[in-house]
């Protein structure tokens, strides 16, 4: 009887999640690293439940007459803060399909915010400073990151099995500035991919 109870308990116990790590390096046609490329992975099986949280803040700062960071990844539904650390006023706007909005004139040490309810790429500008441009990539997967100066990144804990890997960059020569590739994620361990893209 005890054996039967133990067997039943084993069947009811949740099985450990099978997840691997994906290392990506993105280079251009000349083999040079491509920094600030946004990598997203969508497993063919269901995504993990629960809210998506990234280790960086949902903040797009204005500093030195520029958006900082130049590209920000946020989960869909996130409210993004736009603090102004410049001595001049800014007027942030976007005409992008996923989010059309304006944050009218606000000065140093002031902040405005906006909630992004649709996935996609949001191009930002400033009505006062034409040289300012930035991007917010709104995603619906927790498996997302940007490439660093060497063009690489590593995303851990990705659900094992078939998946789709998407690369987005503002200068990528493709529809919507993105390309997608099939990906096999190991149930444990690491898979590495070197991907060459064409930039404008």
UniProtKB/TrEMBL annotation:
Q: Which domain of life is it from?
A: Bacteria
Presence of keyword Lipid metabolism: no
On whether Membrane is a keyword of this UniProt record, the answer is no
Q: Which Gene3D superfamilies match?
A: Cupredoxins - blue copper proteins (2.60.40.420)
What is the annotated signal peptide range for this record?
Answer: 1-19
Q: Which terms are listed as keywords in the entry?
A: Signal
Put simply, this protein is called: Methylamine utilization protein
**Native species:** Sphingomonas longa
């Amino acid at each position: 009887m005890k054996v039967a109870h133990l067997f039943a308990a084993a069947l009811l116990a949740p099985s450990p999640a099978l997840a691997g790590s994906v290392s990506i390096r993105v280079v251009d046609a000349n083999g040079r690293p491509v920094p600030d490329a946004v990598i997203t992975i969508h497993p063919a099986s269901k995504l993990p439940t629960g809210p998506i949280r990234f280790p960086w803040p949902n903040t797009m700062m204005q500093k030195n007459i520029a958006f900082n960071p130049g590209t920000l990844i946020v989960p869909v539904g996130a409210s993004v803060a736009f603090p102004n650390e410049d001595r001049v006023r800014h007027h942030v706007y976007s005409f992008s399909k996923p989010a059309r909005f304006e944050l009218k004139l606000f000065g140093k040490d002031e902040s405005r915010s906006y909630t992004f309810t649709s996935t996609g790429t949001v191009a930002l500008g400033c009505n006062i400073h034409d040289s300012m441009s930035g991007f917010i990539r709104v995603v619906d997967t927790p498996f997302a990151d940007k490439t660093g100066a060497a063009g690489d990144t590593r995303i851990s804990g990705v659900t094992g099995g078939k998946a789709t890997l998407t690369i987005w960059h503002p200068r990528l020569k493709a529809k919507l500035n993105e390309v997608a590739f099939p990906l096999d994620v190991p149930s444990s361990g690491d898979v590495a991919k070197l991907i060459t893209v064409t930039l404008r």
